[in-house]
Amino acid sequence: MNNTQELDKKYVLPTYARIDVEFVSGDNARLVDSNGKNYIDFTSGIGVVSVGHANKRVNSAICEQLSKLTHISNLYNIAPQAKAAALIVETSGYNMKCFFGNSGAEANEGAIKIARKFGEVNGEVKRYKIITLNHSFHGRTITTVKATGQESMHNYFGPFPDGFVYAENIQEIESLIDNHTCAVMIELVQGEGGVQPQDKQEVQNLAKYLKSKNILLIVDEVQTGVYRTGNFLASNVYEIEPDIITLAKGLAGGVPVGVVMTSLKDALSAGDHGSTFGGNYLSSTAVCEVVSILNEYSESGELDKTTQYFDSALNNFYAKYPNLFTQKVGLGMMCGLRVKDADTLSKIILNAKDNGVMVLKAGRNTLRFLPPLTITKEEIDEGFKSLNSAVSSL
Ligand SMILES: *Cc1c(COP(=O)(O)O)cnc(C)c1O
Fold first, then answer.
1. Does pLDDT of 106 surpass 70?
2. For residue range 230-270, what is the model confidence (pLDDT) as tens digits?
3. Distance (Å, whole) CA 315 – CA 337
4. Are 187 and 220 in contact (CB under 8 A)?
5. CB burial class (10 A; 0-12, 13-18, 19+) of residue 277?
6. How far is the CA of 255 from the centre of ligand 1 (A)?
């Protein structure tokens, strides 16, 4: 056991089933571990390091900012925060405003607070119910864990906030609405639930119906956002106009940030919500640089090329092992392969690591790929070569 493992075992709460590897450096989709072994990273830190490891532009923007200021507080104007908000809103194409927090769960908490206040001040009765989907994932705080439609996550921590209602699928939502419903919250591609995209027409019909009933549509884009599914937001891909959108994972290249953006610009007033760290100089500088890089990358056509190349490599891989994989799922650079059983999936992930490629699990039986969006063709080829070695013995 090396020193890191000893310290981790002794001093860190065991909330993660850690895989036995310690990375010490990276470059785009490449990683090096403490033994000097090289890997291709098809995980990007669960969709976080969207512009690759050790991105030079992001790092130099951050370093330059840190040489001046890291943090003041939200009591004062923060230039990079204002710039980041403008960049996010302009890129989205929606007429919205942003609030900055530090994580996906916190962004969703903000969304839920906006919806609850909207429901309290709009309508004859107090509206507080929020409908979410089974197999969803919205975070780990007490409220977002309850918003998550997975019974297994509701152990131990109650009593929970009231008012979350779970629908089996998009079609079932309408039948669960009553006069206390203020919002519906969905992921357009369920990430943790198994990389499952929703049907575009069904989502558009739902959005239209909710608008007609004055019920808010919250889209949790913590995983799908920031070009992961082909456009800046999956909401752009699905051609809908949600009332509230949340972002986090890929937004700042690894610097903690969470954003809730909404067209309800007057929903919250001074004192209704806040965050000490949210949108400070460090995180908002990272947001500005990451979004600028990805805007250029998308506009130049490079993102589409990378997505097509990755998709065809994944198709080839999928077609080669009909005994292991039952279905290919996903959207854009958020991809998955359904594995015949959970045991085989665990073996694939460990074998992949031993063969020098990192991949993820989602749901019970989905092999998940969330590579850096800037992954190169060489890195993709190398990763799938290692993955072939990893599964050929299974
Ligand atoms: C990861 C994730 C979250 C939670 O984000 P944290 O930063 O871990 O709090 C919420 N919603 C979705 C869809 C996610 O993928």
1. yes
2. 999 999 999 999 999 999 999 999 999 999 999 999 999 99
3. 10
4. yes
5. middle
6. 14
Amino acid (1-letter code) at residue 98: C
What DSSP assignment string belongs to 26-71? EEBTEEEETTS-EEEESSHHHHT-TT-BT-HHHHHHHHHHHTT-S-
Q: What is the pLDDT of residue 1?
A: 57
| Count: domains in the chain | 2
* Ligand 1 atom closest to 107 (CA): 9
CA dihedral 69, 74, 76, 81 (to 10 degrees): 60
Task: Identify whether 61 is part of a domain.
Answer: no
Q: Which of 299, 323, 341 is the last residue of a domain?
A: 299
| Helices 281-299 & 302-320 angle (0-180, nearest 10) | 80
pLDDT category at 199 given cuts 50, 70, 90 is very high
385 C-alpha vs ligand 1 centroid, how far in Å?
30
Q: Which atom of ligand 1 is nearest to the CA of 144?
A: 10
Of 363, 355, 360, 362, which is closest to residue 382 (Cα–Cα)? 355
Domain contains 184: yes
246 and 317 part of one domain: no
Question: What is the span of the domain harbouring residue 308?
Answer: 3-55+300-392
> 3-state class of 357 per DSSP?
strand
What is Dmax (Cα atoms) for the chain?
65
If we measure between CA atoms, which residue out of 333, 298, 246 comes closest to residue 49? 333
**Token pair listed for 271:** 């004192």
Residue 300 has pLDDT above 90, yes or no: yes
User: Mean of the pLDDT values across residues 84-100?
Assistant: 98
The answer to whether the CB of 221 is under 6 A from ligand 1 is: no
For ligand 1, say whether the CB of 139 is within 6 Å of any of its atoms. yes
Q: What is the pLDDT of residues 132-190, one digit of tens each?
A: 999 999 999 999 999 999 999 999 999 999 999 999 999 999 999 999 999 999 999 99
On whether residue 64 sits in a domain, the answer given is no
> Does residue 234 lie within any of the structural domains?
yes
Q: How far is CA 58 from the centre of its chain?
A: 19
CATH number of the domain that residue 316 is part of = 3.90.1150.10
pLDDT at 122: 87
Of 275, 299, 323, the domain-final residue: 299
Picking from 50, 29, 45, 54, the residue whose alpha carbon sits closest to that of residue 250 is 50
Q: Is the pLDDT of residue 84 over 90?
A: yes
Residue 186's domain is classified under what CATH number? 3.40.640.10
**281 close to 77: Cβ distance less than 8 angstroms:** no
